[in-house]
Amino acid sequence: MQKPVPFLNRIPLRLVCAVLCCAFTGASLCAQSPKPTDGFFTTSDGVRLHYLEAGAGPAIVFVPGWCMPAWIWEKQIEHFSAHYHVVALDPRSQGDSDKPGRGNFPERRAQDVKDLVDQLKLSPAVLVGWSQAVPELLTYAEKFGGASVRGYVLVDGIAWEKANPQLISGMMEIYPEVEGNRHDLTEKFVRSMYRKPVSEDYIERLVDAVMKTPSDSAVAMSVTSIARDDWRPAIAKIDRPVLVACETRMKAMAADPITAKIPTARVEIFADAGHALFVDDADRFNALLDDFIQHSNGPQPMN
Fold first, then answer.
1. Which residue of 36, 132, 144, 209 has the lowest C-beta tally within 10 Å?
2. 96 lies in a domain?
């Protein structure tokens, strides 16, 4: 009999994966979306990172969560590439990017996003970060400001003003399982991200993608993403429009600290979707992002 994961018995895995990883008002969908192509660039510290790219026009950059691949944004790539220049990143140690044993912390990974924006000349870009990528985009705002940013979209990730000791303790209990029982843990983790049906082929494909991240890097990026106990100084640096999309259970950690500092931030709660809410409820998410971009200052979409 498989040994149970103690922490998973006490706290819902959907909440854990939210921390780990931690339009009808827009352009017409009649235009055919181009097929994404593969690209690579080299970061300022010499790491080769992979991205998917499609479309032309104002830029939208999608950054996935913990161990996730760029292609998990496939419904957004298809939708938005008809009228925008869409780039989905495989962050370092994830997907088809290099797997260095260094740099798996928010400051360096934020620099990777900045390197991408600069090298591909994407400014001003809408930056969309999910789960673990939320602290990375907050770090981006803190380090670099908004000169190259049109808006921030923060999807179901932590932005707390006070760390949750119980949650952190529970996360620490999971990390040995990443080494000792990783495939089973990964499959549970992936399945927990969805409330709507997804195919077994999709689950298998995503599990295989997550397993590409070395276990030591997976632990390092997770530990460093929850290590900071107050994101308010970073939030205070945001000087561009903000959209927060999150599950109901994540509101206190994902949305409330943002609106406390930025009252104009737009918050949308996805009560009937899982952690991967942009997959579970892609039509609603895409419509919200379309509307957010349309009402942000900056270049308009390609017709």
1. 144
2. yes
pLDDT, one tens digit per residue, over 250-269 is 999 999 999 999 999 999 99
Burial 155-171 (b: 16+ CB within 10 A, else e): bbbbbbbebbeebeebb
In a domain, 299, yes or no: no
Domain count within the chain: 1
Q: Which residues are 60's β-sheet partners?
A: 86, 126
Report pLDDT digits (tens) over 54-67: 999 999 999 999 99
Those residues whose C-beta lies under 8 Å from the C-beta of residue 143, and which sit 6 or more positions away, are: 107, 110, 111, 114
Number of helices (H), then strands (E), belonging to the chain: the values are 13, 8
Side-chain-side CA neighbours of residue 79 (13 Å) = 21
Domain span holding position 125: 7-294
pTM over 0.85: yes
